[in-house]
């Protein structure tokens, strides 16, 4: 898959919805549904009766579970539903190209999952939002407040900050929790931590969890140190490598199967699988999963560059090159490239705001097939002052104190990664039990 400098390479996929009722939707000569409206404008009784979605056999593009709505929407009939979602919780509504307001790139048309299910007359009681909020615009680590969705009037409950787990009162009038969030496959990307707490609350209060699975864009490899229990935090809750190589649905099964919930709680769990996906399938996310992961290149580099968040080095927050560059005002030994952060969407107060940062441009770097430590190791070697290079957050991201000590001792990236091999081998054996895809 080719990565562009600023844009997603959006994949197009087609499907035909077959309904066993007399609907008047017009089809073209290829049998594709022709509809210029979104799902929310369709007759919910007609489209809710669809029990099969036939994929175009000429196109093997991965299809997220949310788009296979005819396969699972009946499970919500007569149920009171809470949705855990954000801006990535969408359903494809057609293959007409438009230009997205975020990154000016062509993409498919979508309707938000909440709007779609309301058109199906699903009884949605409230929406829970993870880090970055329901619309996905909050800064990393910023407080996300409760509120009301202007379009639907539904209550939006934040699951980031002091209230990371739904309360008994928030689930009292709920039967099913529908979880649909696009992940990027890194342990410190906090949506899997939200998944943990949602499953825990569901088990405590007798609610069912349905995970609508989505492909993992970094699902093609497993790498990194295993998290040690004493360094458990919201950016690392489970004894898994930095790059875990699982989809949300697979990860949910592992959380339950390994009894990682408080007291070994066991929630009722159902995972709706993707179509046309395996772990080696390239996948381009059509909607940025958070403000500072704007494209495929950033998502691919994220697991390797996120370690810089625990150092005196910027990863380009406050630019349009987030997680595709790194640098610092002190790294003057990098003299071929520089950038200057300034406030923007998702970075109201970026690191080194207004200061020229010398560093490295990775926008054209080849796709990574493993975790790359060379970036951090090289930046540490070039830092004029070593004592202030790392901060306490680095250990939380690494999940171990060992990584910082190894870098400080002068070990090479290859020597360090070799120390992970035994832990990764044990993890892969455990992981195998929960895989839903090859």
How would you sum up this structure, described in words?
The protein is α/β, with parallel strands linked by helices. The protein is 21% helix and 16% strand. It has eleven helices and 14 strands. Strands 7-8-6-3-9-10-11 form a seven-stranded mixed beta sheet, sandwiched between helices. Strands 12-14-13 form a three-stranded antiparallel beta sheet, with no helix packed on it. Helix 4 (191-205) packs across helix 5. The relative contact order is 0.13.
- Give the fraction of residues assigned to helices: 10-25%
How are the strands of the largest sheet arranged? 7-8-6-3-9-10-11
Average pLDDT confidence is 84
Which structural class do the helices and strands define?
alpha/beta
Give the uncertain stretches in residue-range form: 1-58, 96-107
In terms of DSSP E residues, the strand content is 15-25%
Radius of gyration from the alpha-carbon trace, in angstroms? 22 Å
Q: Work out the number of β strands.
A: 14
Quaternary class: single chain
First-to-last CA distance: 19 Å
**Coarse shape:** globular
SS element count, helices: 11
Largest sheet, in brief, is: 7 strands, mixed
Q: Sketch the topology as an H/E string, one letter per element.
A: EHEEEEHEEEHEHEHEHEEEHHHHH
């Amino acid at each position: 898959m080719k990565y562009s400098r600023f844009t997603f390479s959006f994949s197009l996929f087609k499907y035909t919805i077959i309904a066993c009722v007399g609907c008047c939707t017009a089809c073209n000569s290829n049998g594709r549904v022709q509809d210029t409206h979104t799902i929310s404008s369709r007759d919910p009784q007609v489209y809710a009766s669809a029990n099969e979605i036939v994929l175009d056999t000429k196109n093997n593009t991965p299809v997220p579970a949310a788009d296979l709505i005819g396969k699972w929407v009946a499970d919500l009939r007569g149920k009171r539903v809470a949705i855990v979602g954000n801006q990535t919780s969408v359903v494809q509504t057609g293959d007409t190209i438009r230009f997205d307001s975020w990154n000016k790139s062509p993409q498919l048309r979508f309707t938000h999952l909440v709007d779609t299910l309301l058109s199906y007359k699903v009884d949605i009681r409230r929406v829970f939002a993870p880090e970055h909020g329901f619309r996905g615009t909050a800064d990393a680590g910023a407080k996300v407040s409760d509120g009301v969705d202007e379009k639907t009037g539904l209550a939006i409950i934040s699951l980031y900050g002091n209230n990371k787990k739904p309360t008994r009162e928030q689930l009292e009038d709920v039967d099913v929790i529908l979880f649909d969030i696009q992940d990027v496959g890194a342990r410190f990307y906090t949506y899997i931590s939200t998944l943990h707490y949602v499953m825990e609350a569901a088990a405590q209060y007798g609610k069912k969890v349905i995970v609508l699975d989505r492909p993992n864009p970094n699902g093609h490899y497993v790498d990194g140190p295993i998290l040690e229990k004493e360094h458990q935090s919201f950016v690392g809750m489970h004894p898994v490598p930095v790059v875990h190589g699982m989809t949300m649905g697979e990860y949910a099964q592992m959380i339950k199967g390994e009894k990682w919930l408080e007291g070994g709680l066991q929630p009722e769990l159902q995972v709706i699988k993707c179509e046309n996906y395996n772990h080696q399938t390239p996948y381009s996310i059509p909607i940025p999963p958070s403000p500072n992961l704007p494209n495929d290149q950033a998502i691919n580099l994220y697991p390797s560059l996120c370690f810089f968040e625990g150092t005196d080095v910027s990863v380009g927050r406050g630019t349009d090159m987030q997680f595709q560059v790194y640098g610092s005002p002190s790294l003057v030994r990098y003299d071929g490239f520089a950038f200057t952060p300034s406030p923007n969407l998702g970075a109201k107060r970026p690191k080194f705001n207004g200061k020229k940062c010398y560093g490295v441009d990775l926008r054209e770097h080849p796709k990574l097939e493993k975790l790359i430590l060379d970036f951090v190791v090289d930046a540490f070697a070039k830092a004029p002052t070593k004592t202030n290079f790392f901060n306490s957050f680095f250990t939380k991201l690494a999940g171990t104190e060992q990584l910082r000590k190894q870098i400080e001792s002068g070990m090479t990236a290859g020597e360090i990664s070799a120390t992970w091999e035994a832990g990764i081998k044990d993890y892969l054996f455990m992981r195998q039990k929960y895989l839903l895809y090859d």
